[in-house]
Write a structure and sequence with these properties.
The chain is an alpha/beta fold. The chain has two domains: about 1-140, Rossmann fold (3-Layer(aba) Sandwich), CATH 3.40.50.620; about 150-285, HUPs (Rossmann fold, 3-Layer(aba) Sandwich). It has eleven helices and ten strands. A ten-stranded mixed sheet has the order 3-2-1-4-5-10-9-6-7-8, sandwiched between helices. It is elongated. The two termini are about 15 Å apart.
């Protein structure tokens, strides 16, 4: 399994490194640090602004990145056979995305600092940009790393379920876990004794579909390392996931792909979950 981990000097980044190996056993790890110099990234800008000590500053930032990567590499278990370090001047998010593509990552891992949704939309963050522009499965780590024992698997439709089953089958987790497969039915808000539109019939069909979906998904996930339970709930999917995630160590959701940037800007279930759930979140593509 090939993993790309974005790192900086924050506690969240070091927690992301630790969390990676609490979740899985990769054999190939790429640690990526982007030296973000802002408008001073290009020497011609510094020269035009007559910035004193620019060369020393640039070298110090690059050297700091090397030290960071050495520290992060020291956190990687000895059994990992390949550790690659990327330390370049540029956008951290773009370097992570490029490394994920260049090294065919099965998983991208980033820590999140907990910016508010408004400031993130205006200023952006590394985790937000990786989610927005990436095409690889992404683990978002918020807070301290934790042992993964209970996982919430949230599915919206059969394609979601198939993607999650495929990933969990191809990439076994580090330890045996309890999985809870959850599907949320969104109430349609009609309560009329004169059921001219056949709403009750539709609702019964939706409930049957939901129960069959979670049970069939659970059946595909059953193996000696996974204990699986199911639940069908009513309500907004993001709110249901947030509630069900309160006693979980990891939430697994899917992103329906980039149907235009508007999906993330206007809000999607996966994006809302990333903002409100406090445990690590695995977003599968």
């Amino acid at each position: 399994m090939r993993v790309v981990i974005g790192v900086d000097w924050s506690d969240q980044a070091f927690a992301a490194v630790t969390q990676t190996f609490q979740l899985c056993h990769p054999t190939d790890v790429t640690l990526v640090h982007g030296v973000d110099l802002g408008i001073l990234e290009h020497p011609v800008v510094a020269q035009a602004g007559n910035v004193q000590g620019y060369d020393d500053f640039r070298k110090a930032m690059v050297d700091s990145g090397h030290q960071l990567l050495e520290r992060a590499a020291g956190m990687v278990p000895a059994e990992v056979t390949s550790i690659r370090k990327v330390n370049e001047i540029g956008s951290p998010a773009q370097l992570i995305l490029d490394s994920a593509t260049n090294f065919s990552a099965d998983l991208v891992v980033v820590g999140v600092r907990g910016r508010s949704r408004l400031s993130e939309a205006v200023l952006g963050s590394v985790s937000h940009r990786v989610l927005l522009h990436g095409s690889r499965p992404t683990l978002i780590v918020r807070g301290a790393a934790r042992k993964v024992q209970r996982i919430l698997v949230a599915i919206e439709e059969r394609n979601d379920a198939d993607r999650i089953v495929k990933w969990l089958t191809e990439h076994p987790l580090a330890d045996p876990v309890e999985l809870r497969v959850v599907h949320a039915i969104i109430p349609i808000g009609v309560n009329d004794t004169y059921d001219a539109l056949g709403i009750s019939t539709w609702w019964e069909g939706a409930e049957r579909y939901a129960e069959e979906l979670v049970k069939s998904t659970a059946g595909k996930l059953l193996n000696p390392r996974y204990t699986v339970s199911t639940k069908v709930a009513q309500g907004n999917p993001a709110a249901v996931i947030e509630q069900e995630a309160k006693d979980m160590d990891l939430v697994v959701v899917t992103s329906h792909g980039r149907k235009g940037i508007s999906r993330f800007l206007l809000g999607s279930v996966s994006h809302a979950v990333v903002h409100h759930v406090t445990c690590p979140i695995l977003v599968l593509r």
